[in-house]
Each structure stands twice: as structure tokens, then as C-alpha cells.
């Protein structure tokens, strides 16, 4: 079974980033999906580093409001925390690094990392990003509400510009994949009781083949039009063993 584990979001998480989900970073990717249509996911952000003189996409993020975005903690740990002026989000994007006339690029003014984030275990893998100027909402750029409680909602969607194969190249165009959420009991059967906490949510298919990849970390898991989770970590699960490699 192949699943990936996401930070669970609940309404009110942005107002006071206190005790929230616990995760470990692993293999995150959009695999087995398809190209999105322009504007299909108006809440999707490309999170980019500009410190080397180029715009480099390294994580996804989601629009919470005109002034705030939601991302994973592991995307902003370390030096990035102290230099938000070298980080930017791009809203309304579809083809990375290609100006289509709908993009809104905004630098960050502040990063708030979850107060209980643990960089060793990647626990509480949540961050919020304050934008230096407000986004202008339209049909290509808009927010997504947070899910208010943990539910297993069946088919959900993950989107991003992550690689389409392990170790592969990132696509130019935004991709997405539909995946079902998995109950805690089912997830613990494959990951172990101590690896999956109540604050996590798992998504994936028993046969594998559809999930997230490098570059998708921090991006949205959306269920029924709500932001349910953040792409955080995952393992490849072989039929008879747990492993961090390919089966």
C-alpha cells in the first residue's frame, strides 16, 4: 500500500498556531495525475526562493486570505525564516516561469512556524506566511476555507508542480491527482501505531501509483472545497515490509 501523510488543518489554525498536527517528511510527489486547466485551483501558490538571482520553485502553498498563506513547516525551516524578503509566492500561476498575464507575485514580510515544530521528527509541520501586500482576488486567484474537523471524505485532490516520477523532472504546468483519504486504523496497519497520530490524515491508494512528489511539499490536500491538509511526508510500503525506497 502507498499512502502519504498530511498535516491536518482545522478552522482557526491561522489565528494562533498552537498545538497542531505531527508529521515526518518523506517522499512527496504528484504521480499518476494529470495537467490542471488554468484557474482550476485558484488557491494554489508556487513558493519560490529568489536569493540566488533566479526564481526557484521549491514548495507549494495555499491562499488563506488576501494577506496570508498556509504552508508546511519543513519548507521554511532554517535560514529562510530570517530572510523572508528573499522568498515570494506566485498566485494565479499555471506555467512556471512563464508570464501568462494572470500571475501575482508577492514577497513575504513574515513567517510564522508552528511553535511545536520539530525539525528532527518533522512534527507539527505547519507554517503561515504573511504577504508584504494583499493579493487581488479574481477567477484565477482566490482563497480556500479550512476544514473544521477531521473527516474521511473519500476522494480529495492534491495539486502542485512536483516531479511526476521519483527523481524525475518537474513539469512546467500545474498538475493534480485525485486520492482518497484513509482511516487512521488502515494507515496504522501499514505505518505502525506509533507513526500515525490523531492529528494526521493519510491519503492514497492500496495499489499505489497516485500521490505527491518532490516540489509538492507544503501544497494543498483539498476535500469538498476545503483545505484539509498540507503535503508533508510519506513512505513506500511494500507488500511485506515498510521501506523508504521503491518496492
From TrEMBL:
Q: Where are the transmembrane segments?
A: none
**UniProt keywords, alphabetically:** Disulfide bond, Hydrolase, Protease, Serine protease, Signal
Query: Which stretch is the leader sequence?
Result: 1-15
Q: Which GO terms describe its biological process?
A: proteolysis
Which GO molecular-function terms appear in the entry? serine-type endopeptidase activity
Instruction: Indicate yes or no for the key word Iron.
Output: no
Residue stretches making up the Peptidase S1 domain: 30-247
Q: Which InterPro entries match?
A: Peptidase_S1_PA, Peptidase_S1_PA_chymotrypsin, Peptidase_S1A, Trypsin_dom, TRYPSIN_SER
Q: Which SMART domains match?
A: Tryp_SPc
- For whether the record's keyword set contains Transmembrane, the answer is no
- Mind telling me what this protein is named? Peptidase S1 domain-containing protein
Look up and give the organism this protein is from. Scylla paramamosain
